[in-house]
Design a protein that fits this description.
By secondary structure, this protein is α/β, with parallel strands linked by helices. Helices cover 42% and strands 12% of the residues. It has a 7-stranded parallel β-sheet with strand order 3-2-1-4-5-6-10, with helices on both faces. A 3-stranded mixed β-sheet has the order 7-9-11. The N and C termini lie far apart (58 Å).
Length: 393
């Protein structure tokens, strides 16, 4: 089978699976609306634990679960006193002032410790499991990309610790994993190289947990976040602040990226991930042991430029600027952090695998439940639509 056929068939199957799940979800939602249940107090809400809650993605999950008001949330993290922990603590104070008991924080949770995780999962009905080969402390990556042997061991220590903790807590009936897009070519296409080791290993984790009797919903989401253009959506000055955390990287005549300008990329905003995590927990009868694929948009760089120019209110012009691949390869000799996006980009941009969604239209079914954080919405949120052209000399 040739690569394009394999990818096309996989994408059709992913789209059909999504439609099946969303049809079932909407039917179940309609049934519930015909027989509404009385509102529950905070103490009666199901308790969900979120691992790695200071991380950008898992923080967004915590925030969206709290916003929904349908769960009590226990945010698990390792190190107090960091900037990321402070963000979580701010959310806790705001939530506690509004709805006491809806959010609790638990620090000192080591993903490698079955004892710590057993304590952390106690009394929970649901758990979000986030696994990584990153053994970093204070942001310094010590095991990623260049070290598959040590990296695989780091991942599996976390998996086995969480599995022991889940077996010790039968109250946990539903888990959610967050994984990269599925491999569509390896084993089907002649001479197709395997995925980078950390992607290939992560793709194995959900089937492994299911084989151990754990009910897991796997959410496949892109690894290209809108953070490529915007460091952190939670930064207070999210339009045009002075610090690197408060500004987008998009400027007049500059939309940066690492892929070829005509290469289709599936993008995701972590807030969309958070909303779908909540929905999967809310409808466990629909999503039990199922796979769901999501994205926020599917665009080439040329399309991103066209959207930015169309949405801008002042006629400002934009231009795509690709970060040179040769420079990434050079930097990878000195920084393990560069290896990760480099290998990921190579795996897709050499036309090996392909994304879950072939076009923006493929995402229409997701909008039936949650309106997506499209690139247009991001531009408005970031203030890009109000960037004025620089004054001519």
């Amino acid at each position: 089978m040739d690569r394009d056929t394999a990818v096309r068939l996989a994408q059709q199957a992913i789209k059909a699976n999504n439609k099946r799940l969303i049809d079932a979800l909407l039917a179940r939602k309609a049934e519930r609306e015909r027989s509404p249940q009385p509102p529950r107090s905070v103490a009666e809400l199901p308790l969900v634990a979120v691992t790695c809650a200071t991380g950008w993605e898992c923080y967004a999950i915590v925030e969206e679960l709290v916003k929904s008001g349908k769960f009590r949330v226990r945010a698990l993290y390792r190190t107090p006193g960091t900037q990321a922990a402070e963000r979580l603590e701010t959310l806790f104070r705001e939530t506690e002032a509004r709805e006491p008991g809806l959010l609790t924080l638990l620090s000192g949770v080591d993903m490698n410790s079955a004892a710590k995780l057993t304590e952390a999962f106690a009394g929970c009905q649901g758990v979000v499991l986030y696994y990584t080969a990153n053994t970093s402390k204070a942001g310094k990556v010590t095991n990623h990309g260049k070290d598959p042997v040590g990296g695989r061991a780091a991942v599996m220590r976390q998996v086995m610790a969480s599995l022991e903790a889940l077996k010790a807590n039968p109250s946990v009936q539903h888990c959610i994993t967050l994984i990269f897009p599925t491999d569509k070519v390896h084993g089907l296409v002649d001479a197709a190289p395997p995925a980078p080791w950390w992607i290939e290993q992560k793709l194995r984790l959900t089937p492994f947990l299911r084989s151990q009797g754990v009910n897991v919903t796997c959410i496949y989401r892109p690894a290209y976040y809108y953070a490529m253009h915007r460091v952190d959506y939670t930064a207070k000055e999210h339009f045009r602040g002075d610090s690197s955390l408060s500004r987008t990287m998009i400027r007049e005549n500059n939309i940066p990226g690492i892929t070829e300008p005509d290469f289709l990329v599936n993008w995701v905003d972590v807030r969309d991930i958070g909303k779908w995590v909540g929905t999967c927990f809310e409808y466990p009868e629909v999503f039990a042991n199922e796979d769901l694929s999501i994205a926020s948009s599917a665009h080439t760089a040329h399309e991103l430029v066209a959207i930015a120019e169309r949405e801008n209110r002042h006629g400002t012009r934009f231009k795509y600027k690709q970060f040179p691949l040769w420079l990434m390869k050079t930097l990878s000799f000195f920084s393990e952090e560069v290896v990760y996006p480099l290998r990921y980009a190579e795996w897709y941009t050499d036309r090996t695998n392909g994304y879950d969604f072939a076009s923006n239209d493929d995402l229409a079914d997701l909008d039936r439940v949650h309106p997506r954080w499209t690139f247009e919405r991001e531009l408005e949120f970031w203030g890009i639509n109000d960037i004025k052209p620089a004054a001519k000399a």
